[in-house]
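Entry type: protein chain
Record version: 2
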Amino acid sequence: MAKTLILIPSRMAATRLPGKPLLKINNLSIISHVFKRAEEASIGEVVVATEDQEIFNDVLKNGGKAILTNKNHKTGTDRIYEAYEKLNIKNIDYILNLQGDEPDIDKDDIINLNNCMINHDAELGTLAAKIQDDKMLDNKNVVKVVTNQKLEKNNFPTALNFTRDNLSRDNQNTYHHIGVYSYKTSVLKKFIRMDQTNNEKKNNLEQLRALDNKLKINVALAKYSPIGVDTKEDYLAIKKNMEYKI
């Protein structure tokens, strides 16, 4: 049976909202909410990878697992690879990289991506959701993915491109990309040794490095688009939404 490890990169020094991992929703930090969602998926061990002692302490205090990593990583993927090596857990087949700023991520979407990876023997996979609001197509903060087939509940098409550019409804098979990734362990090892490409740097999209190097990225359908916490407005919106659900 395939064995999956979920790693959640997190750091205090976010450009637009410093300290966001420790902002509270229902008296629990954002990073600990993400940890608990990942744990509820029950697909494997969950560990937060962080350079900050404050995040490490918070996760442990709330019953989670964390590991301290180097402060000089360029990307979250570099951070999770260091964590994977340090943890030295044997026989891991897949590593799932979960964003630390999406406390409302649906556990069923995590499970679905993991199942799709295993059932299709895929090398690299991610999530996307249907675009419900046309304003998202014009928003450069929203990453869009274009797939080679219509994205449906029971398929796992490949990504043709990822972009922040404005798109219209005329673009075929365009979805809201959700930054959750699952890698075969061997593919993650290969990926972090690749140089950053000009395309990746220009667009600030790490997944373009994979496409530029002819790595296939499969895409699974998510139930909905979770709110990522990038700004104070995002935080207040998701705080209101999650506290209202209680």
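Comment: The first helix runs from residue 30 to 41.
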